[in-house]
Amino acid sequence: MKKAVIFLYLIANLFFSAFNSDILAQEKSTNLMADFSLFYEYNKNNDAKSAIPYGWKVINTDPTNFLKYKIFQKMEDMYWFEHDSTDIDDASKEIIADTTLHLYEVAMKYEPEKIGYYLAKKAYVLEVWKKAPAPVVIEAYEKAFETDATIPNYYKDRLGIIYATNAAEDNDYKLKALDLYSKLSEVEPDNALWIGKIENLASDINELVDITKKSWDLDKSNLEKAWKYASICIKAQELEKAKEPLEFLTQQSPEVINYWKQLASVYEKLDQNDKALSAYKTLINLQPDNRDNYVNVAVIYKRQEQLSISRGFLQKANNVSPDWDYPYIIEGQLYEQAARSCEFDFMAKCVYLLAVNTYRKAAGMGGQYASTASDRVKALSNSTPTKEDYFFRKLNSGDTIKIEGSCYSWIGKSVQVP
User: What is the Cα–Cα distance from 105 to 107, expressed in whole angstroms?
Assistant: First the structure.
């Protein structure tokens, strides 16, 4: 009997303890809701001084159920408003700054998905309100961007300004600023502000070349830094220096068209024709429907006096773009070049006539080079066969003249007597 009584006593204690806990929990929840309601009303009426204490009661107890009402953002707004008030002294501003930093630390625990935002605002408070040392502010901003790359560019620009302002021989801030603004310019290529920031980092273009090179040298596997160095070299007309990063880029990313285009152009401008040809032919494999690459190859072969091969690539350009007049301009130049390199005799005049006929075809297409083609027709008017040339050879209008001879064996075409 005694054991039964004890058992009932224990059961009763457990029941009343649980009952009391539920009551306390309900009271706590009710009080928390009341505190939040007061906070919300005061905040809605722009009464920050009355709202903030109730806000902290909720935050210090358990703000979980009130996150959807943006309790941390509302508290933040009030502190920012109070800090910027003209009626507040410096000592009070300092207290607000420290309290706001604490608010962000707490907010990050409850809203980890917004940690990047809070870190960026923390960095700003350290920079602008607290006037913290540059290394402290830089570390705070860098941590924010490492956490969240989507942080607004305004804060990234602030970091860039701090980098640039504090750049010195014993730190890498100038390189970091250049890298930051380079990335911003890639994201927003039409924003002239970022390009201006990059240019302002150096006293002249040559220093910018040195800066970008140093940046790449310190991170040699970084494709973005290699591209930036190459781009600045090209802009500075330092083509010999541009080769190294472009060759690296084409090796690391052989499918990227723009890397090959820039490398081919650099080789060509440096008169490294064999390498330029190889690069352009790689582009042809990557872009078989791009007419420009065929013409670029043709122009190099023309320069090397390999006229037959040059014409072959011009014909490929025509196959890709039949209505394009430019390949005919180059073809006409091939015939002129052949005629000039040989004795000026009747056959040379016939080759000039072939050039004239080719230019006329280009002019008749009415394209971009129509005027150029017409000018060449006029310029060669005294180089083609005369009536006497035809008369003494007993050639009549409509007769066909085959282009032949050792100088012109590659041509394989004919002209007709006008």
Answer: 5
